[in-house]
Amino acid sequence: MNKILITDPLSENGINILKEAGFDVINMPGINSEDLIKILPGIDGWIIRSGTKINKKHFQYAEQLKVIGRAGVGVDNIDIVSATENGIVVMNVPDGNTISAAEHTMALTSALSRNIQEGHLSLMKGKWKRSELVGNELRQKTLGVVGLGKIGREVIKRALGYEMKILGYDPYVNKKLFESDNINIVDFEELLEKSDYITVHVPLIDSTRSLFNYEVMSKMKSSARIINVARGGIINEADLVKVLDEGKISGAAIDVFENEPLNHDNPLIKARNILLTPHLGASTFEAKEGVSTSICNQVVDFLKDDKMSNAINLPVSDMDLLKTLEPYLKLGNVIGSFLSQLVKSPIVSLEVESFGLVQDTKPIMLSVLKGILKDITDVRINYVNVLSLAEERGILLKFSHNTSSVSYSNLIKVRIETEMDKFSVEGCLFDTKMIKFTNIMGYQIDFSPLGNMLIVKNKDIPGVVGKVGTALASHDINIAEFILSRKKTQDLAYSIIKIDGNISEKVLKTIENLDEIIDIKQIHING
Questions:
Q1: Beta bridge partners of 428
Q2: Residue 231 a catalytic site member
Q3: Superfamily for domain range 3-94+286-313
Q4: What is the pTM of this model?
Q5: Which of 114, 158, 272, 279 is catalytic?
Q6: What is the pLDDT of residue 321?
Q7: Is 201 designated active site?
Q8: Which residue from 410, 443, 445 is spatially nearest to 428, judged by alpha carbons?
Q9: Are residues 31 and 39 in contact, defined by beta-carbon separation less than 8 angstroms?
Q10: What percentage of residues in the chain have a pLDDT greater than 90?
């Protein structure tokens, strides 16, 4: 009989699911560390919420443990690496708060529009401010949705019920997914200029931190309002206070903060026309009940039928294959990372083709996807969830093994198509360790793609190398390697310039403005 340990509060319905499956349930929320160590050796499954912290030490005792279930989304309280090393599957419930977050977004939007907070507070003070608190209808107003993932889409459904006009922005989602909807996909600048309300539904990653700063929010309508139920830090709090106090925007509703809980002396509390809630986006009885029953069903399915739902790490059953393919998976990951830094519009399709010794192409395709997606989402990317993430973005996938004779015994070809262009890269391994790229965009080339580099597309005319080199030297940038590829039948060439360290956007612009340069991208690949 499987033993399941529960160390955080779980709903009775969830616990009953485990019992009805014939499992021995040990329900001990808040158990102390000493007693926990005594129980761990005999358990097969462990279900937690955010209160329990699972680290490497626990796995030394939990020799029988097969699965950890997180009743919720975040897994920062679990040592994922150690769990994977010990062959323990970690599952979560990523959709558990989708509806609650979407509804809270609309609740805040409505509250802002009708001055509900101010109306309530004035009544509590004995004031009747009916004529002063005239609000706005949402009907026919324009809602700008930044981030078109699951929560963003649920917000759109509800906003359409209010008869709102929808503008959407998401650089990583295929526009074709929204062709049949009443949604106008626009660039970020247009969304800022035209929206009456802007709601944020993106992860907090490097590219979205302070996405809404003073300069950006100053481009919004002075009558516009902004809502954030996503992550603290996406809207710069100091800049938000400034634009509110200066009247550059009309109002804001914020549920998430850079530091939580919110300090009583945070300037947001005294800002003009602001509505604050204490991270209530996922705090509904339905969401809490939903994550409890969902994770219990997932644990039952895994322990009884080996079925995995929302597993966020690698199942041990695939470890042998992945160890065999490890060098090729690294190659695929490098190609994916390289391509993700080249493209500037949503990816429509990905095709991976292997040659020679590498016959199992699907894992390599997954590694390419990992490389592409890892820098554009805060979700932990792995071989279990990467397919669903690609599907969510509308990326069409194709992989195959080609038996044709080629110059290299372990060649990988990758082609991607975006909404604006097509890209291709070919790479291989030397001595199963050294990664080399042999072709970029149909141009034969030979270089190691690790480190800092510039990818330059230029006119194939005399003097280009000298001008680019001079431009870099004038900014004290050292060239480690300069590789040039050209075709006699073409008037274009590609240059790969290895450099010491990163260069600024200003320097990139200087080179890009040279008459001979068509395009330039800066790329960094970790070794």
A1: 436
A2: yes
A3: NAD(P)-binding Rossmann-like Domain (3.40.50.720)
A4: 0.71
A5: 279
A6: 61
A7: no
A8: 410
A9: yes
A10: 70
